Amino acid sequence: MTIQRRGNPKVPDANGIEKKIKRGNALRQASAWRVSRGSLLVVVVALAVVGTLTWLYLASGDPYTTETLVRQAEVVAQPRVYTVDCSEDYENYKRYPGCTPQTCGRAITDNSVTREEAMALRRLAERGLALAGSDGGASILDLHSGALSMGKQFVNIYRYFGEQITDVFSEEDFRLYREVRGRIQAVIAETFDLDPSLLYLTKPTFFSRINSTLAKTQHDEYWHPHIDKVTYGSFDYTSLLYLSDYGTDFTGGRFIFMDSNGNRTVEPRAGRVSFFSSGSENLHRVEQVSWGTRYAITVSFTCDPAHAIADPTMPITSV
């Protein structure tokens, strides 16, 4: 039997093996780079998203804002009205036909008070608050009761400063204050279809000055959500007259309606009046001021004549 030989087994070429190893390493490196590049791309995209969200948060001030009802740069010639369902709060109080809210809502107008009048009222507030002021970020001046923030407490400006008040305020200041209050009352009555003679000014009605100073007492913590009708049972309609401009005089400090489906904001503008029914349908807060100083007047109204207050007048001093 003849056995055929096929020759000696072929010995692998060392150079070929080295080339294969290098090619394999190159493929693995390329694969690793593709994975690394993919991971890097994910990181870059994630950072971009985080950066965008951070910018939006800082730009908006309030991350839960879903709608801006009116911006600072807009001029609202006719009241811009947003109706909402009335809460049951009013059922817990005596009803006054022709006044107690039947239609509830919120509205904004720039046509009841001129910018010049707002600036004059701001100067009045600045002079009064310059006499004292809170240690924290929120100070008030109430021309009706005379309450003025001083450090961590309040003083009666008329008693504390006596005859010096005539160097701070003038009869013209009080005349303008009364006239503006009357116009605000008139636009509220017209918008909510009320008998204006059944709507009364009530307390507290006051000037406010808010800045970014850290709060020292509970009175300085103005930013907490609240309901005016719950805080002050006499309130039926609340209004704010802004005396400074959002974005120019201050940042933050927007007025925020906290609805169940999102927040709605009002950007302050000197001379702008924002007003609303005072019940739970208008839960609200003020955004914390982050820079500058925000001036405003809160003017409150009731349907209950037992809680009515008179307009302030220039105090009579002895000669």
Descriptive overview:
The chain is of the alpha+beta class and about 325 residues long. The chain folds into two domains: about 20-55; about 70-305, q2cbj1_9rhob like domain (Jelly Rolls), CATH 2.60.120. Helix content is about 30%, strand content about 25%. It has five helices and 16 strands. The protein has helices at about 15-60, 115-130, 155-160, 170-190, 230; strands spanning about 65-70, 80-85, 105-110, 135, 140, 145-150, 155, 200-210, 235-240, 250, 255-260, 260-265, 275, 285, 290, 295-300. The strands form four sheets. A seven-stranded antiparallel beta sheet has the order 2-3-13-9-16-8-5, with helices on one face. Strand 6 (about 145-150) and strand 7 (about 155) form a beta hairpin. Helix 2 (about 115-130) crosses helix 4. The longest helix is centred in the first third of the chain and has 47 residues, at about 15-60. The N and C termini lie far apart (about 150 Å). About 35% of the residues are buried. InterPro entries: OGFOD3, Oxoglu/Fe-dep_dioxygenase_dom, Pro_4_hyd_alph, Pro_4_hyd_alph_FE2OG_OXY. GO terms for molecular function: dioxygenase activity; iron ion binding; L-ascorbic acid binding; oxidoreductase activity, acting on paired donors, with incorporation or reduction of molecular oxygen.
Write the layout of secondary structure elements.
Blueprint: H1 14-60, E1 65-70, E2 80-84, E3 104-109, H2 115-129, E4 133-134, E5 138-141, E6 147-151, E7 153-156, H3 157-161, H4 171-191, E8 200-210, H5 228-231, E9 237-242, E10 250-251, E11 255-259, E12 262-266, E13 273-277, E14 284-286, E15 291-292, E16 294-302
Parallel strand pairs: 1-12, 4-6
Antiparallel strand pairs: 2-3, 3-13, 5-8, 6-7, 8-16, 9-13, 9-16, 10-15, 11-12, 11-14
Helix pairs in contact: 2-4
Pfam families: 2OG-FeII_Oxy_3
Cofactor: L-ascorbate
Protein name: 2-oxoglutarate and iron dependent oxygenase domain containing 3
